[in-house]
Amino acid sequence: MKLLYSRTSPFSRKVRACAAVLGIKQRIALVEVNSTQSPRELTGTNPLGKVPTLITADGFAIFDSPVICEYLNDSSEDMPIIPASGAPRWLCLRLQAIGDGLMDAASVRRQLLVVGGLEADHPLPERQRATVMRTLDVLERERPSLHIDVGVLSIACGLGYLDFRFAGEDWRAEHPRLAEWHAAISEHDCMRSTAHGS
Protein backbone atom coordinates (compact mmCIF):
# COMPACT_ATOMS: atom_id res chain seq x y z
CA MET A 1 0.00 0.00 0.00
CA LYS A 2 1.03 3.60 -0.57
CA LEU A 3 -0.16 6.68 1.32
CA LEU A 4 -0.05 10.06 -0.36
CA TYR A 5 0.16 12.45 2.57
CA SER A 6 1.36 15.74 3.99
CA ARG A 7 3.34 16.08 7.22
CA THR A 8 1.27 19.12 8.16
CA SER A 9 -2.17 17.62 7.46
CA PRO A 10 -4.04 16.55 10.61
CA PHE A 11 -6.06 14.10 8.50
CA SER A 12 -2.85 12.49 7.25
CA ARG A 13 -1.63 12.28 10.83
CA LYS A 14 -4.84 10.54 11.86
CA VAL A 15 -4.42 7.87 9.18
CA ARG A 16 -0.77 7.33 10.08
CA ALA A 17 -1.67 7.04 13.78
CA CYS A 18 -4.39 4.51 12.98
CA ALA A 19 -1.93 2.43 10.93
CA ALA A 20 0.52 2.49 13.84
CA VAL A 21 -2.11 1.34 16.34
CA LEU A 22 -3.25 -1.42 13.99
CA GLY A 23 0.32 -2.67 13.57
CA ILE A 24 0.38 -2.21 9.80
CA LYS A 25 2.40 0.98 9.32
CA GLN A 26 5.31 -1.06 7.94
CA ARG A 27 3.03 -2.23 5.11
CA ILE A 28 2.43 1.36 3.95
CA ALA A 29 4.93 3.33 1.88
CA LEU A 30 4.68 7.05 2.66
CA VAL A 31 4.80 9.45 -0.27
CA GLU A 32 4.79 13.11 0.71
CA VAL A 33 2.98 15.41 -1.73
CA ASN A 34 2.08 19.09 -1.78
CA SER A 35 -1.65 19.12 -2.50
CA THR A 36 -1.66 22.89 -3.08
CA GLN A 37 0.37 22.27 -6.23
CA SER A 38 -2.08 19.59 -7.46
CA PRO A 39 0.62 17.06 -8.40
CA ARG A 40 -0.39 14.53 -11.04
CA GLU A 41 0.45 11.67 -8.70
CA LEU A 42 -2.33 12.90 -6.41
CA THR A 43 -4.93 14.28 -8.84
CA GLY A 44 -4.52 11.26 -11.11
CA THR A 45 -5.70 8.97 -8.33
CA ASN A 46 -7.97 11.29 -6.33
CA PRO A 47 -10.00 13.78 -8.39
CA LEU A 48 -10.54 15.84 -5.22
CA GLY A 49 -6.79 16.43 -5.05
CA LYS A 50 -6.72 15.98 -1.29
CA VAL A 51 -4.52 14.21 1.20
CA PRO A 52 -4.50 11.66 2.55
CA THR A 53 -5.11 9.26 -0.31
CA LEU A 54 -4.37 5.55 0.08
CA ILE A 55 -3.42 3.43 -2.93
CA THR A 56 -4.05 -0.25 -2.25
CA ALA A 57 -1.80 -3.07 -3.44
CA ASP A 58 -4.04 -3.56 -6.48
CA GLY A 59 -3.95 0.16 -7.39
CA PHE A 60 -7.34 1.16 -6.00
CA ALA A 61 -7.44 4.69 -4.56
CA ILE A 62 -9.26 5.21 -1.25
CA PHE A 63 -10.13 8.58 0.27
CA ASP A 64 -10.87 10.48 2.54
CA SER A 65 -9.57 9.78 6.06
CA PRO A 66 -12.68 8.07 7.56
CA VAL A 67 -12.86 5.68 4.61
CA ILE A 68 -9.11 5.02 4.72
CA CYS A 69 -9.32 4.26 8.44
CA GLU A 70 -12.19 1.83 7.81
CA TYR A 71 -10.09 0.10 5.16
CA LEU A 72 -7.05 -0.13 7.43
CA ASN A 73 -9.23 -1.42 10.25
CA ASP A 74 -10.47 -4.23 7.99
CA SER A 75 -6.92 -4.94 6.78
CA SER A 76 -5.53 -5.62 10.24
CA GLU A 77 -5.77 -8.65 12.50
CA ASP A 78 -4.97 -6.55 15.57
CA MET A 79 -7.54 -5.12 17.97
CA PRO A 80 -9.93 -3.04 15.83
CA ILE A 81 -10.03 0.74 16.13
CA ILE A 82 -13.66 0.81 14.96
CA PRO A 83 -16.18 -1.31 16.88
CA ALA A 84 -18.16 -3.66 14.67
CA SER A 85 -21.67 -2.80 15.83
CA GLY A 86 -24.00 -1.35 18.41
CA ALA A 87 -23.63 1.66 20.66
CA PRO A 88 -19.79 1.45 20.87
CA ARG A 89 -19.56 1.78 17.07
CA TRP A 90 -21.84 4.81 16.90
CA LEU A 91 -20.15 6.52 19.83
CA CYS A 92 -16.77 5.98 18.17
CA LEU A 93 -17.94 7.26 14.78
CA ARG A 94 -19.64 10.27 16.40
CA LEU A 95 -16.37 11.15 18.10
CA GLN A 96 -14.56 10.76 14.79
CA ALA A 97 -17.02 13.19 13.18
CA ILE A 98 -16.39 15.71 15.98
CA GLY A 99 -12.63 15.35 15.59
CA ASP A 100 -12.77 15.62 11.82
CA GLY A 101 -14.99 18.68 12.10
CA LEU A 102 -12.50 20.26 14.49
CA MET A 103 -9.65 19.61 12.05
CA ASP A 104 -11.69 20.91 9.14
CA ALA A 105 -12.71 24.15 10.88
CA ALA A 106 -9.15 24.83 12.04
CA SER A 107 -7.73 24.08 8.57
CA VAL A 108 -10.23 26.34 6.80
CA ARG A 109 -9.59 29.11 9.33
CA ARG A 110 -5.86 28.93 8.70
CA GLN A 111 -6.36 29.05 4.94
CA LEU A 112 -8.57 32.11 5.26
CA LEU A 113 -6.10 33.90 7.52
CA VAL A 114 -2.80 32.93 5.89
CA VAL A 115 -3.60 32.21 2.26
CA GLY A 116 -6.66 34.45 1.96
CA GLY A 117 -5.08 37.27 3.93
CA LEU A 118 -8.25 37.99 5.91
CA GLU A 119 -8.14 39.68 9.30
CA ALA A 120 -8.86 37.48 12.33
CA ASP A 121 -12.13 39.29 13.07
CA HIS A 122 -13.44 38.90 9.52
CA PRO A 123 -16.76 36.96 9.57
CA LEU A 124 -15.43 33.99 7.59
CA PRO A 125 -12.47 32.98 9.78
CA GLU A 126 -14.40 34.06 12.89
CA ARG A 127 -17.12 31.56 12.02
CA GLN A 128 -14.52 28.78 11.89
CA ARG A 129 -13.01 29.93 15.20
CA ALA A 130 -16.46 29.82 16.80
CA THR A 131 -16.91 26.27 15.51
CA VAL A 132 -13.60 25.27 17.08
CA MET A 133 -14.55 26.81 20.42
CA ARG A 134 -17.99 25.16 20.50
CA THR A 135 -16.33 21.84 19.75
CA LEU A 136 -13.78 22.30 22.53
CA ASP A 137 -16.59 23.17 24.95
CA VAL A 138 -18.40 19.91 24.10
CA LEU A 139 -15.20 17.90 24.48
CA GLU A 140 -14.51 19.55 27.84
CA ARG A 141 -17.89 18.30 29.06
CA GLU A 142 -17.64 14.89 27.38
CA ARG A 143 -13.95 14.21 27.86
CA PRO A 144 -13.15 11.17 25.67
CA SER A 145 -11.86 7.86 26.91
CA LEU A 146 -8.16 7.04 26.86
CA HIS A 147 -9.01 3.80 25.03
CA ILE A 148 -7.53 4.18 21.57
CA ASP A 149 -10.00 4.07 18.69
CA VAL A 150 -10.49 6.11 15.54
CA GLY A 151 -12.66 8.65 17.35
CA VAL A 152 -10.09 9.27 20.07
CA LEU A 153 -7.33 9.60 17.47
CA SER A 154 -9.39 12.11 15.49
CA ILE A 155 -9.84 14.30 18.57
CA ALA A 156 -6.17 14.00 19.53
CA CYS A 157 -5.01 14.95 16.03
CA GLY A 158 -7.43 17.87 15.95
CA LEU A 159 -6.06 19.25 19.21
CA GLY A 160 -2.52 18.66 18.01
CA TYR A 161 -3.29 20.67 14.89
CA LEU A 162 -4.48 23.60 17.04
CA ASP A 163 -1.13 23.51 18.84
CA PHE A 164 0.71 23.31 15.53
CA ARG A 165 -1.05 26.09 13.62
CA PHE A 166 -2.45 28.28 16.41
CA ALA A 167 0.22 27.99 19.08
CA GLY A 168 -0.43 31.54 20.25
CA GLU A 169 -4.02 30.76 21.20
CA ASP A 170 -4.31 29.00 24.56
CA TRP A 171 -7.26 26.63 24.22
CA ARG A 172 -6.19 24.83 27.41
CA ALA A 173 -6.97 27.73 29.78
CA GLU A 174 -10.74 27.31 29.40
CA HIS A 175 -10.63 23.55 28.87
CA PRO A 176 -8.48 22.07 31.68
CA ARG A 177 -10.03 18.60 31.65
CA LEU A 178 -9.55 18.32 27.92
CA ALA A 179 -5.99 19.61 28.26
CA GLU A 180 -5.25 16.90 30.83
CA TRP A 181 -6.73 14.27 28.52
CA HIS A 182 -4.70 15.52 25.56
CA ALA A 183 -1.47 15.44 27.57
CA ALA A 184 -2.15 11.80 28.47
CA ILE A 185 -3.13 10.64 24.97
CA SER A 186 -0.17 12.47 23.43
CA GLU A 187 2.18 10.09 25.28
CA HIS A 188 0.94 7.19 23.16
CA ASP A 189 3.52 5.93 20.67
CA CYS A 190 1.19 6.47 17.72
CA MET A 191 0.90 10.17 18.57
CA ARG A 192 4.59 10.70 19.26
CA SER A 193 5.68 9.04 16.03
CA THR A 194 3.28 11.08 13.89
CA ALA A 195 3.80 14.55 15.38
CA HIS A 196 3.29 17.36 12.88
CA GLY A 197 6.37 17.84 10.77
CA SER A 198 7.56 14.25 11.28
TrEMBL record:
Record-annotated GST N-terminal domain positions: 1-80
GO molecular function terms noted in the UniProt entry: transferase activity
InterPro entries linked: Glutathione-S-Trfase_C_sf, Glutathione_S-Trfase_N, GST_Omega/HSP26, Thioredoxin-like_sf
Organism field: Lichenicola cladoniae
GO CC annotation terms, alphabetical: cytoplasm
Keywords linked to the UniProt accession: Transferase
Lineage: Bacteria, Pseudomonadati, Pseudomonadota, Alphaproteobacteria, Acetobacterales
Pfam family, one: GST_N_2
Name the UniProt record assigns to this protein: Glutathione S-transferase
